[in-house]
Structure prediction request, 599 residues.
Amino acid sequence: MRLRTILALGPHNVARVLLYRAGLATGLHPRLTIHANAPSGPFFSPPLLPAAPHLWPRKGWIRDEELVFGQSQPRLDGATDPPDWFASADGTARISSKGPWWKIPDFASGAGDIKAIWERSRFDWLLAMAQRAACGDDAELQRLNQWMANWCATNPPYMGCNWKCGQEASIRLLHAILAAVMLGQDSTPQRGLRDFVKVHLQRIAPTIGYAIGQTNNHGTSEAAALFVGGSFLGGIAGQRWSALGRKWLENRARHLIAKDGTFSQYSVTYHRVMLDTYAMAELWRKRHQLPAFSMSLTKRLTAATVWLVQMTDPESGDAPVIGANDGAHLIRLTDCGYRDFRPSVQLASTLFKNAAPYPTGPWDQQLFWLGIDRPAQTTAAPQSKSFDDGGFHVLRAGAAIAYLRYPRFRFRPSQADAMHCDLWVRGQNILRDAGTFSYNTSAADMTYFNGAFAHNTITFDNRDQMPRLGRFLFGNWLQAQDVELITDNSAAAAYQDRKGAYHARHLTLHSNCLVVRDTISGFQQNAILRWRLRPGAWELSGHAARSQSITLSVSATTPITRLVFVEGWESRYYSSKTPVPVLEIAVDRPGVLTTKVEF
Prediction:
């Protein structure tokens, strides 16, 4: 099983990761010999002209408030100004080590989730402060220079946990250059900002091979940072870095984005991260009149934009919590919430399709702050569509959207979510996914949130769909069978697991109801169908559950041995979990279960 998994991951990718780790363990990696002085400010000067009246500075990062994984919260570090860069945003842990980054483990005992420490060092605060400075707030300009100077002084190059991840360094670099764009200083930057970009590129470039081996958004983020940052610096070294970034941006678009637009991580949130980084690269290319990317890249990014349009509910801007959801949100320039995908969709659609999918609204601020005109052309409303390269059916009828996730795994799956079904009606998520919660939590939480138990699907004999080989790795990847692409607003798919259990799911969506037909066989003891429902007051009567205007009823060709409500969990924001009602329907024989959701 492990050998099959290695072959599925790709021997070249596995070799890149192993060589990287061996280089760190032996001290022979070229990255370990690089040293640099800490940059010093000022990093930004006052803008020459105030921002135009139609530009609205984003709220956030004011006084004793901060944004953590997409949610606003009070500062838990005593509201020091600047903050403690080594304390977790939830106040539960602190990493005091200032040694070389490569000697600090990702999951050190007692350090908590390192992502909670990295969050402030992503420099999201810099964007909010730069917007206010662009609107003439001199105090915010002074504050952002003070915070950057403090960060550089307390995080000398390549020492400490905030230098550990090349992607984190890339996000920080891109946000710094984006601030320069909004302040009109990307062509005439301060020396402090140039030094800041240079020390980050020196960290990113030597480990790009490891990022590529991950076959995920590490490669796209770091390639974008090299392309943009190298062009920003100029000179021989800058041109070399920029060329390297361009090479990997082209390569990653070909290899990680399917022809239908599905991204390798099978995650709505990570898809947005990938699309935002490519948007930043394209924005920079156009702004500085650099040679165009290939037609192949543009086609893949156009398809990726269509994918996110289809996944986004136009009424709320929200999207299913399918796949990993770790709180990542780049280029946040509006007051639209973390779970509102419309600003990213509007930006990508403008850059790669020259058309706007949404009417005028606050999401347009993403364009205006970047000096991009809203396109005159609008796109047609999305229709039902199958994304068979990645394993997604999206059905639309009236105000309802239904999603079916099925296993087309060219890349490693992060969750056991085969046959998961999400339902949205008039902007409300009726049947819902559990999310991720945390990458560094108890074994029980990891098993629950990443497993089939936390999805709207069926589990057989109380086991997961795939065996777990590591924190982020499953074995025996499922393969789809009997796929029926969308016809007359119906679609289907199936799989058979390693022990012979078979699950076929057929969806039909109408404007007032969803019908799900599950055909199951091949199990030994029991099969449990779970429907994770919108929080609220639900009443169970016979084989039907009701809440306000929603009725969910279940029938079966085999006896139902148990039909009860249990308490489950969901995590719509990283590191936060809340209870959710889950309807469990159990049977002990093969048969067909039919669920009808009326709304």
